[in-house]
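Researcher: I need the complex structure. Ligand is zinc ion. Inputs:
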Amino acid sequence: MDITCLSCHKVISDSANFCPQCGIKLKEPALSTSIGKQILIYFISFFLAPFGLHYAIKYIKRSDSRAKMVGIVSLILTISAIALMFWITSSFMNALYQPLNFNGF
Ligand SMILES: [Zn+2]
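Model: Output:
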């Protein structure tokens, strides 16, 4: 299928990432949604939570439904990891300050 370049109006192939005539960027190259890449993103999302957000946003913004799905899963994992981190921290703090409470503080 052919499309018309928005910049120079030349008819070009819709598979091109850049216009061969004027060089304008036509679309973002597809993001990898391979199993290996997904595992890497999910791993980062969960174990290095704040960094996963970068991937989540990058993938969610895509119109490609497969990439979007990877982004959504990554976002859910990031939120879960952060929630878990808060829960562990608060449990730890409670355990730490428990003896003080017994002494009437
Ligand atoms: Zn062009």
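Model: Summary of the prediction. Residues 31-105 form one domain.
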